[in-house]
Description:
Largest sheet: none
CATH class: Mainly Alpha
Distance between the termini: 89 Å
Order of helices and strands: HHHHHH
Number of domains: 1
CATH superfamily: Ferritin, core subunit, four-helix bundle
CATH architecture: Up-down Bundle
Oligomer: single chain
Strand content: under 5%
Shape: elongated
Helix content: over 70%
Bound molecules: fe (ii) ion
Number of helices: 6
Amino acid sequence: MPNTKSKKPEKSPSSNGKNKNAKATQETNSQLQKFFEDSLKDIYWAEKSLTKALPKMQKAATTEELKNAIEEHLTQTETQVVRLEQVFELIGKKAQAKKCDAMEGLIKEGESIIEETEDGSMTRDVGIIMAAQKVEHYEIATYGGLAQIATTMGLDEAADLLNETLDEEKEADEILTKIAENNINWEAEQETETE
Length: 195
Ligand SMILES: [Fe+2]
């Protein structure tokens, strides 16, 4: 029979069979753990930086509505820092921050918006809201991914903590959208017309 060897190619990708696969899985897991830990350090840096950046944004904002929303999110952010420390503890690692280039860029963008818009203008609030929403979206992507990885690795408690923060970020994003839609965008548009 010419095709007696036909079964061989099926097995050939891993001639060592299960042992090789098991090893590969183990390696993947430790790589994933390392990635998870590195991403935690990244977002830990980001949140800590936000606890410093948010008060500046709040101070620069024009409307009380936006000031209040930022203040509320600052309180949440402080809690989120603590939650991340709890996640580090759950994986048996020391909480450590590693500079997050993306968040640094987003914070800088917010600072330039403040510099480029007039003090007391509604356009400044529109800009701050946009900058803050970019931050929220970055965080939503990060926490969504981290929670998923935690679940995959069977770290249910860590996943719960990460999902809790994820929900807060989503809520903050929605609040900002509402503020923009209800008043600020419209008033900023009037501002442009009268100038
Ligand atoms: Fe956050």
